[in-house]
Amino acid sequence: xxxxxxxxxxxxxxxxxxxxxxxxxxxxxxxxxxxxxxxxxxxxxxxxxxxxxxxxxxxxxxxxxxxxxxxxxxxxxxxxxxxxxxxxxxxxxxxxxxxxxxxxxxxxxxxxxxxxxxxxxxxxxxxxxxxxxxxxxxxxxxxxxxxxxxxxxxxxxxxxxxxxxxxxxxxxxxxxxxxxxxxxxxxxxxxxxxxxxxxxxxxxxxxxxxxxxxxxxxxxxxxxxxxxxxxxxxxxxxxxxxxxxxxxxxxxxxxxxxxxxxxxxxxxxxxxxxxxxxxxxxxxxxxxxxxxxxxxxxxxxxxxxxxxxxxxxxxxxxxxxxxxxxxxxxxxxxxxxxxxxxxxxxxxxxxxxxxxxxxxxxxxxxxxxxxxxxxxxxxxxxxxxxxxxxxxxxxxxxxxxxxxxxxxxxxxxxxxxxxxxxxxxxxxxxxxxxxxxxxxxxxxxxxxxxxxxxxxxxxxxxx
Length: 463
Ligand code: B12
Ligand code: SF4
Fold this sequence. Notes:
Blueprint: E1 2-7, E2 20-21, H1 25-34, E3 40-45, H2 54-61, E4 66-70, H3 76-88, E5 93-96, H4 98-102, H5 106-109, E6 115-117, H6 122-129, E7 140-144, E8 147-150, E9 177-178, E10 181-186, E11 189-191, H7 201-204, E12 209-211, H8 214-222, E13 230-233, H9 242-254, H10 257-260, E14 262-267, H11 269-274, H12 276-284, E15 287-295, H13 299-304, H14 311-323, E16 327-334, H15 341-353, E17 358-363, H16 371-378, H17 404-419, H18 422-426, H19 429-436, H20 443-462
Parallel strand pairs: 1-3, 1-4, 4-5, 5-6, 10-13, 13-14, 14-15, 15-16, 16-17
Antiparallel strand pairs: 2-9, 6-7, 7-8, 9-10, 11-12
Helix pairs in contact: 1-6, 8-9, 9-12, 15-17
């Protein structure tokens, strides 16, 4: 069979898309799981090849026997359009990823979707490609004689070390970068034991947290494209098991990967604040930035969303990062329940006072299957039959304290306030810290890439 795996486009050249482009790990992972079956697999990352109109995509899809598409809630609208094109060409479609897993009844609502792979895809997709009868494939939802059948869930793989390696050579590594530093992604664990009310990871992984062994992680890193300079660990909670992380750091140094690569990971405030020795080891092993979901600096909001830490921990966490030469990239939600416009401005000011290095803001969004979604429906903030296929990542709901317009204004203001303050960047402590603190050794590598690649791209665009 000829199979086309599609990563749908997402805000190409806008927002985060201006400064980063991430490899399509879900599809590389799937391709790795079926690479020995003799099928011909192609990946189309529409964030790289973004010049596809309906005619061009139709011509492309016609060359294949099956189209697989990865789908988040924010890309659902585009994914449906791709499915409609495939349907017109009579090519079957299979969707996977967070949105179809958490809202599998979309297959009943939209006839252009032929199959859904719920949850982890490796085994389900493999069984399908091996020709196992559909009604025997766990985790598969499909259509038969006009009726939709949802097979029972597939149990999770307990031993992640047995997973096949992602097939990284299926895409050209050149376009992928994080602030123009050639970058790749690596997954070392799945799931999260916490249950923040806005997050769907716990629902997707059913509260389970599973890890790959340090040896397996190193083997995966050794197989990344050799142009890679920066690795983003996609785990939601990379630093949850201190012993494992310290061992990974030891191996990074032993294999000298720490000299060749820089690392960025997502972590939790309390893990960092409670484990300064782990942060020190990570810094020594080449970690340069932690992506932390602060979400808010108002204690009541943190409590509401079940974050389970206080502002003292936040302060401690940032101090420890900076002491170890690790940059803090903070993510914040605008429109938290119980938060007013004034409260949000207090958070913005604290971002600066606490010397966060980079930040991004997202509108409060009751993603399907989250506790926040139930709360939003119960309180009438969004209708139960909210049409996610019409949503395009803009604020979706008025909260008791803020209107959609106020949330949008605050999103815009946050970037203006944080990034457009030139004095803050040029004369503030931030640049001095980066230039004169030897712990920020990595800064000159990143600055070089930003200047050579980023500036060139910027000048070309100006042309
Ligand atoms: C890395 C990452 C990113 C990267 C993108 C990386 C990329 N190009 O793939 C960046 C930083 C750019 C990013 C951005 C965003 N992200 Co993001 N991201 C993640 C993260 C942390 C890891 C994803 C990953 O690679 N996992 C590893 C792979 C192997 O797992 P997987 O994707 O789940 O794929 C498996 C299965 O789902 C299934 N599968 C998936 N696709 C398919 C397709 C087929 C055909 C089949 C059969 C199976 C299948 O099989 C795979 C193997 O088991 C997840 C959280 C998480 N833990 O997954 C959030 C997550 C997916 N992101 C999320 C969101 C909201 C966003 C943003 C909208 C944030 C924003 N406001 O800008 C943007 C949207 C970007 C976009 N492309 O649309 C949400 C999605 C929620 C939802 N309901 O859809 C998540 C779950 C985070 C969260 N906690 O809420 N993200
Ligand atoms: S936000 Fe982070 S810590 Fe909270 S449940 Fe989601 S992945 Fe876990």
